[in-house]
Amino acid sequence: MKREKEVTIYDLARIMKISPATVSRGLKNHPAIKMETKNKIQELAKELGYRSNNFASNLRQQKTHTIGVIVHELNSNFITSVLAGIEKVTTESGYDLIIGHSSETSKKEAANANNLFHKRVDGLLASLAYDTESLQHYDPFLKKGIPVVFFDRVDKDTPATKVVIDNYAAGYAATKHLIDEGCKRIAHITASLKRNVYNERLQGYKQALNDNALCYKEELVIINDLSEHASIEAADTIASMNPMPDGIFITNDFCAAVVMQTLKEKGIRIPEDIAVVGFNNDVISKIVEPRLTTINYPGIKIGEAAALKLVEQLRAPHEHHEPEMVFVDAELIVRKSSLKKK
User: Which positions fall inside the HTH lacI-type domain (predicted)?
Assistant: First the structure.
């Protein structure tokens, strides 16, 4: 099928017998153009299927009014809420989003970064994959002065603004709560320690044990990918330990829910035999039985804070913006899964 020729402002001007400049101003709702003329221009444009040429306009302005976002997964309540926070701020600021998904691999993360760089995004928001070590794929942005803000999973040595929670304090609070409930042999299920979020939560767990005269034991720390299969395996491992742990701090609510279900199927009572604390305050934490004690990780606030910091830099491109670490508050939410004391 033959493609129709694009309608231009010159076509509209010729039909209406006015100047192209008047058409252009009318389409942009310029106050200098009479309302009657504006309405006629816009009605004709709609009738003929006129589309504004944002591409040409962007080339002239050296801006695309787009922001790139790289996330490590999409099948996550936390990431969904982060994206909602980002979208709220960027829409209000007049930016569109292009989202890249690394699927937890540094190779795909690097490909996404390269793609977004060549799409000429005005700025970039990124959260790192499990196995990302080198951040060289972000160098082209930094060298060009294109602002980059990292969120959630970050690298502390990268010279860019980062938006996080205090993962160390959250890990400490989760572990201390289990200790306060009488737990003395506490297991910890976590993911790749290359990432700040998991490493810092582990350090908080260790410190809480130390401050309460409990020994850190490597065999009680299980590191996996937090998937359903890995969570079932972790639960099997914990159930086979002798003596069995009396508490578990798990750095992901989905993993915690699967672990709890698997343990219950083995006749292990929660929290009487094992108390459980999760992380994120995902919807599943309120559905699983017993309801899951967790750390509230406010994804929407993380997304809003990261996007605000990026937009702030985009609005003042010639000013020096010192890299900063922005902390968003997180808190322990106590529910039945951890309450061993009646």
Answer: 7-61
Tokens of 236: 């099997």
Q: What CATH number did the domain enclosing 114 receive?
A: 3.40.50.2300
Q: How many CA atoms lie within 13 A of 240 on its CB side?
A: 7
* Euclidean distance between CA atoms 185 and 166, whole angstroms: 25
Confidence of residue 294 (pLDDT cuts 50, 70, 90): very high
Residue found by looking up tokens 């490909």 in the block? 111
Q: How many domains, in total, are found in the chain?
A: 3
237 shares a domain with 171: yes
Least confident of 20-34, 36-50, 51-65, 160-174: 51-65
Tell whether 148 is covered by a domain. Answer: yes
Question: Where does 204-297 show beta strands of DSSP type E?
Answer: 221-223, 247-250, 275-277, 294-296
254 and 232 within one domain: yes
Q: What is the greatest pairwise CA distance in the chain?
A: 89
Q: Coil, strand or helix: which one is 23?
A: helix
